[in-house]
Amino acid sequence: MSIGLIIVIALVLCCCFTHRRVIASLIKGTPMPKAPRWHVWIKPENRRK
Known about the structure:
Elements lengths: L2 H16 L1 H9 L21
């Protein structure tokens, strides 16, 4: 394996881990979890307090 492929795989795994609650809600069909407070591009009512 090349070093570039290893880096891409590591980044994809990090992204999946970071967004695990959102991915789980998409699979289960449950409502999306609230976004962290620092996601300023999300409406305030959809962010955690």
